[in-house]
Amino acid sequence: MNKITRNTFFICITLFLIGCNSNSSKPNTNLKTKSSVLENSHFDKDTIRLESSLNKLQGIWVGEKDLNQSIPYRIQYENKVLDIICVEGICDEGNYDNSVIEISYLGFSDNKKKSLSREDLKNNGNLMVKLNSKVLIDENYIINDAFYTTSLTSSYMYDEELYNVSSFSKINSLPIDIFCKLKSKKVANIKNIIREFNIYEFSSKIKVVADKTFFHSEMSETSRRKAFLVRGDIAYLESMNDKWAKVYYDGKIVSGGYVKIEGIEVIK
User: Fold this and answer.
1) Which fold has domain 204-266?
2) Residue 52 — pLDDT band, cuts 50, 70, 90?
3) Distances (CA, A) of 39 to 20, 27, 28, 33
4) How many Å apart are CA 117 and CA 119, to the nearest integer?
5) Smallest Cα–Cα separation from 212: which of 231, 227, 237, 197?
6) pTM for the full predicted model
7) Which of 155, 148, 149 is nearest to 130 (CA)?
8) Is residue 201 classed as helix, strand or coil in its secondary structure?
9) Is it the case that residue 158 has pLDDT exceeding 60?
10) What are the structural domain ranges in the chain?
11) What are the pLDDT digits (tens) for 231-268?
12) 197-235 in b/e burial notation, b at 16+ Cβ within 10 A?
């Protein structure tokens, strides 16, 4: 390489490097610093958080048994709560109604005052608050997508010394016996409690895609009954495995049992 060529080469390299340095020193207006992104997203995060806690409580839940083996079921719609307690694990014993049904309101607050009203309940807060005949407050609640824990279970089950906290797990639908009880029973002058607490929309359901599918008393071919569903019928789904689904149909009467999954599709 001759001298002129070498000099030209070094000049080009120098100019290229100077150009790179000058470009890198210019601020990129399209980029935001980490702190500015956090500052701008702070409101959005708070908005999501404000909406999330109450939203996560919406639906149908079953709680842990208490010391007497009583089982709490809970439906939350907006800030309204319906608690159904099957005393000692049995809702009906012969002709005797062995259940307790309570209606209350549940939401959140950052205020510990004892005069809170339904209008004071928020979507989120440091305190979970339950309102019925009195104000109950839980500072240690935990909420997840599929479960939550709180001391604010039914007053029938609550025992300050023996049973402080209940864990609730989300379920597909109410058991058929609980559904029938709510359908036939008037609670606090509510004519249609299924509609009042959005139970149909909260529940998992199946749609019949076969011409006809028979109910079975058990998960076996030999337990087939005369009752059946036809194409297009929609039923509540309690549970299912790879062969059978436990469902019930709300018609003139509520009919339930096991059906083969090959004749249905899950729609929620």
Assistant:
1) SH3 type barrels. (2.30.30)
2) low
3) 31, 20, 19, 10
4) 5
5) 231
6) 0.77
7) 155
8) helix
9) no
10) 56-185, 204-266
11) 999 999 999 999 999 999 999 899 999 999 999 999 97
12) bbbeebbbbbebebeebbbbeeeeeeebeeebbeeebbb
In the Cβ-directed half-sphere of 82, how many Cα atoms lie within 13 Å?
A: 23
Query: Quick count: other Cβ atoms within 10 Å of Cβ 150?
Result: 21
Cβ 219 vs Cβ 243: under 8 Å: yes
The two most distant CA atoms of the chain are separated, in Å, by: 112
Q: Please, is 36 exposed, middle or buried when counting C-beta atoms within 10 Å of its C-beta (0-12, 13-18, 19+)? A: exposed
At residue 261, what is the residue type? I
Return the number of other C-beta atoms located less than 10 Å from residue 246's C-beta. Answer: 21
Where do we find the tokens 């998992």?
204
Kindly give the residue spans of alpha helices, DSSP state H, lying in 153-255. Answer: 176-184, 193-196, 199-202
Place of tokens 């989300």: 170
Contacts of 83 (CB under 8 A, 6+ apart): 72, 73, 74, 100, 101, 102, 103, 104, 153, 154, 156
- Residue pointed to by tokens 């309102």: 131
Q: What is the DSSP letter of 9?
A: H
For the record, the structure tokens of 256 come out as 């339930």
Average pLDDT (187-197) is 89
Tokens of 47: 């908005």
Which H or E run contains 44? helix 34-57
Which CATH number describes the domain made up of 56-185? 2.40.128
> How many CA within 13 A on the CB side of residue 58?
16
